[in-house]
């Protein structure tokens, strides 16, 4: 896999997005945590420094500045005049330059500062002596008192920020690694499926992709893919079997045609050319019929988009009877609709009726009704019937019973096979069922529910379609 493919993979993209999201979230958390911890630690310290500075100012008298009372917590105290000179200081701050050059305004007499001075980081509170007190003490010369204490170790030299930054980086790395591992584990079945699919060829469709035990989207995808492979394998096997049958069925008339033409060429004095051409035309006509039926058989599942089909209208208007002079009677209900191809279903019904006429003695009956959410159409003749052992064989391509060969020598044996394929494509069934006499073909199709109620049958429900002789 190339670098571009690796970078464009779902795992990389999802992990990068998660890392960016983690960066934003943990950075915001880190900043908020730094501010909260700093304020929590510094707030009581500002209270101590402010109190120390205020107490010293309160003890000052005109002409007398008492020594500052430094404590362990607040060891640094300074009194600085308006010229920046230190006039008094605690022992710990003696010899130091002013703790800060900041001078509060009269409107905001106290400032809280952070400074690093003489190798130490300190917290400093600056309080300006009020003008009234400055007037009494120093004839109006403004003075500032600075009270300072050592900054806690965790806050000095940005240690807290560095610690939080380290925690944020580690959290982002850990989150990114977890997402990388989880996504990789989640997509591992997809990689297994891809590897297995790459080994599947038309020559070997028995392979199946591994199915994860979880019933998630990937598991459903694998199971759906295996079902599709199973259907594809069945379709390919069906096509291979059909191709072998077709080759066998076409070989016989082609061999006969070649023999007739060779005979006409080898023995021109003994073979009547007109008779040879006539026999050859008959053979080519049979070949054309077989090819047409094969094309119809191959196009069954590639029909146009399905549409509502009125089965009653098909039976009334599209049913043809051209096989024998045998009457066809119908008994149908109204409002029988299915979803599918009208032309294909019409071909199925016509094929069943023509076959029934071919084998009937006196009559053919066609009935259509609704049963348990299905439209059920039965075509019954009063002929010799079909033995139970042959009821499935007749639906196989090119299978013809002896009785069928006698009554239709030019048949191809594909009519019923095509009919069953069409019905299967419409999610229905076509079978031969028991009948008191003759053969009874039963077609079942899922009914299309309509908003209109079914109309009652008119009359006795029996209609004679017509008689056509051939």
Give a structural overview.
The chain is an alpha+beta fold. Helices cover 47% and strands 16% of the residues. It has ten helices and 13 strands. The strands form three sheets. It has a six-stranded mixed sheet with strand order 11-12-10-9-7-13. Strand 9 and strand 10 form a beta hairpin. Helix 7 crosses helix 8 (342-359) and helix 8 runs antiparallel to helix 10 (415-425).
Question: Topology of this structure?
Answer:
Layout: H1 3-7, H2 10-59, E1 76-80, E2 86-89, E3 110-117, E4 120-128, H3 131-138, E5 144-150, H4 159-199, H5 217-266, H6 273-298, E6 307-310, H7 311-318, E7 328-332, E8 337-340, H8 342-359, E9 364-371, E10 374-381, H9 402-407, H10 415-425, E11 429-433, E12 440-446, E13 462-464
Parallel strand pairs: 7-9
Antiparallel strand pairs: 1-2, 1-5, 3-4, 4-5, 6-8, 7-13, 9-10, 10-12, 11-12
Helix pairs in contact: 2-4, 5-6, 7-8, 8-10
The gist of it:
The chain is α+β, with helices and mostly antiparallel strands and 470 residues long. It has ten helices and 13 strands.
CATH fold node name of the largest domain: Heat Shock Protein 90
Q: Distance between termini?
A: 70 Å
Compute the number of structural domains: 3
- Helix proportion range: 40-55%
| Strands, count | 13
CATH class of the largest domain: Alpha Beta
Adjacency order of strands in the biggest sheet: 11-12-10-9-7-13
Q: Beta fraction of the residues?
A: 15-25%
Q: What is the molecular shape?
A: rod-shaped
For the sheet with most strands, the description reads: 6 strands, mixed
User: What would CATH call the homologous superfamily of the largest domain?
Assistant: Histidine kinase-like ATPase, C-terminal domain
Structural class: alpha+beta
What is the residue-mean pLDDT, rounded to a whole number?
Answer: 81
């Amino acid at each position: 896999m190339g670098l571009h493919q690796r970078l464009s993979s779902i795992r990389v993209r999802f992990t990068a997005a998660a890392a960016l999201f983690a960066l934003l979230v943990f950075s915001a958390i880190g900043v908020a945590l730094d501010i909260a911890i700093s304020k929590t630690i510094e707030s009581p310290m500002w209270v101590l420094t402010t109190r120390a500075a205020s107490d010293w100012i309160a003890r000052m008298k005109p002409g007398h500045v008492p020594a500052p009372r430094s404590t362990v917590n607040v060891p640094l105290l300074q009194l600085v005049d308006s010229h920046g000179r230190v006039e008094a200081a605690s022992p710990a701050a003696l010899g130091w330059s002013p703790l800060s050059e900041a001078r509060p305004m009269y409107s905001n007499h106290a400032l809280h500062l952070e400074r690093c001075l003489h190798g130490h980081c300190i917290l400093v509170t600056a309080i300006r002596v009020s003008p009234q007190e400055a007037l009494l003490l120093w004839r109006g010369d403004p003075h500032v008192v600075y009270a300072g204490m050592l900054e806690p170790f965790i806050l000095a030299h940005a240690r807290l920020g560095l610690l939080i930054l380290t925690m944020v980086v580690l959290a982002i790395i850990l989150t990114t690694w977890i997402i990388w591992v989880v996504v990789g584990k989640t997509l591992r079945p997809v990689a297994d499926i891809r590897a297995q699919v790459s080994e599947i060829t038309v020559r070997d469709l028995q392979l199946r992709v591994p199915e994860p035990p979880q019933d998630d989207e990937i598991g459903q995808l694998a199971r759906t893919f295996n079902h599709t492979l199973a259907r594809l394998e069945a379709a390919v096997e069906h096509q291979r079997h059909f191709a072998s049958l077709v080759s066998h069925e076409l070989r016989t008339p082609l061999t006969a045609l070649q023999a007739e033409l060779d005979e006409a060429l080898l023995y021109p004095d003994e073979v009547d050319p007109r008779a040879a051409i006539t026999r050859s035309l008959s053979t080519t006509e049979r070949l054309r019929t077989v090819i047409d039926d094969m094309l119809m058989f191959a196009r069954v599942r590639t029909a146009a988009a399905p549409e509502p089909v009125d089965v009653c209208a098909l039976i009334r208007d599209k049913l043809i009877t051209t096989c024998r002079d045998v009457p066809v009677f119908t008994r149908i209900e109204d409002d029988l609709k299915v979803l599918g191809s009208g032309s294909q279903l019409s071909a199925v019904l016509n094929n069943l009726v023509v076959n029934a006429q071919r084998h009937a003695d006196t009559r053919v009956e066609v009935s259509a009704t609704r049963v348990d959410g299905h439209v059920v159409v039965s075509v019954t003749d009063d002929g010799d019937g079909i033995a139970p052992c042959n009821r499935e064989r007749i639906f196989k391509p090119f299978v013809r019973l002896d009785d069928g060969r006698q009554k239709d020598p030019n048949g191809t044996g594909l009519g019923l096979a095509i009919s069953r394929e069409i019905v299967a494509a419409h999610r229905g069934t076509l079978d031969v069922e028991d009948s008191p006499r003759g053969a009874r073909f039963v077609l079942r199709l899922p009914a299309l529910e309509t908003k209109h109620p079914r109309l009652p049958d008119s009359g006795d429900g029996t209609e004679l379609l017509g008689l056509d002789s051939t």
